[in-house]
Amino acid sequence: MKTAPMTVVVYGKGGVGKSTMCAHLAMCFAREGRKVLLLGCDPKADTSLRLLGGKRPPTIVDMVTGLRGHRFQELAVRSRPGLDILETGGPQPGQGCGGRSVATLCQYLEEHARELSGYDTLIFDVLGDLVCGGFVAPLRFGFGRDVYIVSSEETASLFAANNIVRVAAEPYLQGVSVGGLIFNLRQNDARREVLEAFAARLGVPIAAVMPRDPVILDAEEDGVTVFDHKPGKQAAARFSALAASIAARRGAVPGAKVRPMSSEEFQSFVRENRVYRPVPACSGKKRSRA
Predict the structure, then answer these.
(1) Any alpha helices (H) in 169-285, and if so which ranges?
(2) Which of 2, 8, 34, 285 lies at a 20 to 30 A Cα distance from 23?
(3) CA-CA distances (angstroms) from residue 27 to 109, 113, 121, 157?
(4) 18 a catalytic residue
(5) In the chain, helix, strand, coil percent, each to 5?
(6) How far is it, in rounded angstroms, from Cα 265 to Cα 290?
């Protein structure tokens, strides 16, 4: 009997680096010999940029609008052996709901269970704006059970991370597990003790702390991952370690056991811990910890 695929749902505030994480995790698992399907659930359809040399793949929205057919083979793009990509896409600005597109993707996957069964690893890259319920669709449809949250040390990013934990703890999402927080640092001198206190307050482990690395930025500008970029060995090792950690933590922390903060509690946490808010270096001002 075929076992269920390992499914990882990655959430995070826009611009925090979740698509970078997902693209590299997909590469790590494919390099291990897994059959991976990377599902981009961001309206920008940018999950695949580093894996397709910057080329725009077909999307679910293209299918809905008649620009593409309905066949799975027409929409799932092969990046390299063992790694396929399926992008949701999104409507033109001001003309629709990105969350609805994610729900449409999940309905499409339900209709193509046979094709989906050919993969042993699914990675969902989902925008963390959970004000719109459509972005919860991978969890609501039962595709994803292991949630990972990408955050930086910045207040707005931590606020989004707390909200994602609040969603994962909802009773209607029984069985969802919060595998860990992935801190993608904006500033490498960010106060690690604040991040540790934040994770402890939520009852969620820290899966990784990823320092800001110019090699990753250079690779992104070239439209590739660090595995295809030279030199990138240290950065590649960090992503490989994160992938191994995710595989080991599978189903580790049931959502019912996490302890999300209310909005008021979060603001108290920010005030009590003096969350680090960097000032741009060009301003000439000292960095504030207020």
Answers:
(1) 192-202, 214-221, 233-248, 263-273
(2) 2
(3) 22, 23, 11, 25
(4) yes
(5) 40, 20, 40
(6) 18
pLDDT per residue over 189-235, tens digit each? 999 999 999 999 999 999 999 999 999 989 988 888 999 887 778 99
Q: Is 55 a catalytic residue?
A: no
Look up 286 and say whether it is catalytic.
no
Among residues 44, 46, 213, 228, which one is catalytic? 44
Are 149 and 198 a contacting pair, CB within 8 Å?
Answer: no
Marked catalytic residue, from 42, 125, 129, 146: 129
In order, the DSSP letters of 86-143 are EE---PPTTSS-HHHHHHHHHHHHHHTHHHHTT-SEEEEEEE--TTSGGGGHHHHTTS
Whether 71 has a pLDDT exceeding 70, the answer reads yes
Catalytic-residue membership of 44: yes
Active-site residue identified among 18, 84, 125, 146: 18
Catalytic residue among 13, 42, 84, 125: 13
